[in-house]
Structure formats: structure tokens, C-alpha cells
Amino acid sequence: MTATAPDILIQEVAPRDGLQIEAKWVETSEKIRLINSLSAIGFSRIEVSSFVSAAAVPSLRDAADVFAGIERRPGTIYTALIPNRKGAELALAARADELNFVMSASETHNRANMNMTHAVSLASLSEIVKPAHAGGALVNATVATAFGCPFEGLQPFEKVLDIVKRYLDLGVDGVTLADTTGMANPNQVSQLVAEVLMLVPADMLTLHFHNTRGLGLVNVLAAYDTGARRFDAALGGLGGCPFAPGATGNVCTEDLVNLCHETGLRTGLDLQRLIDLSFRLPGLVGHEVPGQVAKAGRPLDLHPIPERLRRSG
């Protein structure tokens, strides 16, 4: 019997975007254990790590070892974030299934985050796509700060659309719009997603929201209602950008799965297994995590009737 396709694809980014900002070093073996647990739950994509400067992101300096140690589940795409050709070469050597290239819509944030101008970033991407495809890897290209930059403010839609067109001209396999600092609102999301879906089919577009101002799940619904079907999320709501002041965690995976299931959207993911895995995170990172459903339980996880009420009944 063929499994029913999910209505919405949730892609897990906690091992990379979630752990990159953590002050506490997470041992390589623990990262591998986390990724293997996520694989067993059945995610279609897991962002494993990033091949960037160890000086810039020391928490992910073991990327090659993590890729070498994970158990690869058939049907799951294991992704590496890369900023340039050198990062791409390292990711391909580690047998990443997909390279996630990142450039910010904001020139200022791109210089802060990647230490490159737009022109240099695009030149790097032009050197990456063909070797990646030749090596059997997909290339996804992310527009960071697509919904706003902490240095420049809102980014014109025309600028974001122009970057998307440039990505497509270079032959990428997918495009992500990232709300890197949680500045998006539902009206803005609906408008920009509608414009981008005129350039990119829904199965090539991913939305990446942060919950910095509490609008992450609302923005997911706005994008879904506009036609988007692929979304990044991080277990426990981990994450944040080291180069975006005030940026906090990603949309929480288990909270998003709960929302989907409560509104009748099929995810293909087991909420209780996600909650169980999320319970392990505070011990891993050394602090509580933002996710809500793991704390409160599923809506129909009922509690015992108080003893005094049972006696009086």
C-alpha cells in the first residue's frame, strides 16, 4: 500500500541552525545521536551542519566528522550549509546530499554574515552548481533577511525577486526565503510568497521562519494558504543567527507539527516521538528551550481528575 503524501513538508534544521549559536559545546557523538533520532522519525530533509570558518562558527567545527558518523536513512536528504566554493568542496567530500548556499538580501547583513558583497557571493554560487551536480548533490539557494534586515530594515520585494531570478539562472534546484531575524508579518509573507511562486514551483520553494516576535507559526499558515508547502523548523525551537542582533530561535518543530495536526494537515511525522526527543534538548544544550507543546503536552493529553472532585462525585 502506498503511503499518503503529506500535505506539508517539514524540514529539520536543529542540528545546524539550532546548534550554531549555542555557547555550550555539543559533543560530536551527541550531534550524531540527535541526527540519527531525527532520521528515524522520518524527516525528508535534515540540515546536518555547515562548512564555514571554524573561527566564525566554532560550535560546528566538527561538520565532517558528523557527516561521517550519521546513519543515512533512505529517502532522507542530508544537507550542509555552505557560503562559498571551499565550503562546497568540503561538503561534497563529506557526501552531503544537498548544499544550501546562503546570501542575504541585505548587502550589509551579507557582509556581516558571509564577509562578502552580493557580487562575490553570486560569483561563488556560479562556481558551485555544476561541480555539485556532477558530484550528485542538489543545490538549494537561500535568500536570508528576505523579510527584513536588522541593519537596513525592510527589503524591497523587487530586490528579493531579482536574487531569486539570479539563483534560477544559475541552475539551483531549490530556493529558500529566510526570515532570519523574525521581522516578517503574515500580510508581508502572503504578498512575497505569491510573487515568488510566480517564478518558482511550490515543490522548489522553502520558507524559513524565526519566532523572534512570536509570529512564526502565523507566518507559516500565511505562507501555506498562499501556496507554499515546504518549511524549515527546529526541534525545541532552537536557533538564531550569530550575525543578527536580537534573533532568536526557529519555528519549533513539534509546535508546528501540533498546529498542522490540529488543523487537519498531514505531516507524516509522529508528534509524541518529537516531544520525547525534545525532552532531551535541555540536557544537550544546557538550558531550557522555547518550544511549548513539549512543556504543555498534546491537546488531548488529559490529566487525572483531582481527588477531592472524585470523592465529592
UniProtKB/TrEMBL annotation:
Q: Does the keyword Lyase apply?
A: yes
Q: What family does the entry list?
A: Belongs to the HMG-CoA lyase family.
Q: List residues traversing the bilayer.
A: none
Would you say which domain of life the source belongs to?
Bacteria
Which InterPro entries does the record cross-reference, listed alphabetically? Aldolase_TIM, HMGL, PYR_CT
Q: Which UniProt keywords apply?
A: Lyase, Metal-binding
List the GO molecular function terms. lyase activity
Extract the PANTHER family matched here. HYDROXYMETHYLGLUTARYL-COA LYASE
Concerning NCBIfam families, the annotation shows: PRK05692.1 (NF004283)
CDD domains for this protein: DRE_TIM_HMGL
Protein name (Swiss-Prot/TrEMBL): Hydroxymethylglutaryl-CoA lyase
Q: Does the keyword Signal apply?
A: no
Domain (Pyruvate carboxyltransferase) ranges: 8-275
Which Pfam families is this protein grouped with?
HMGL-like
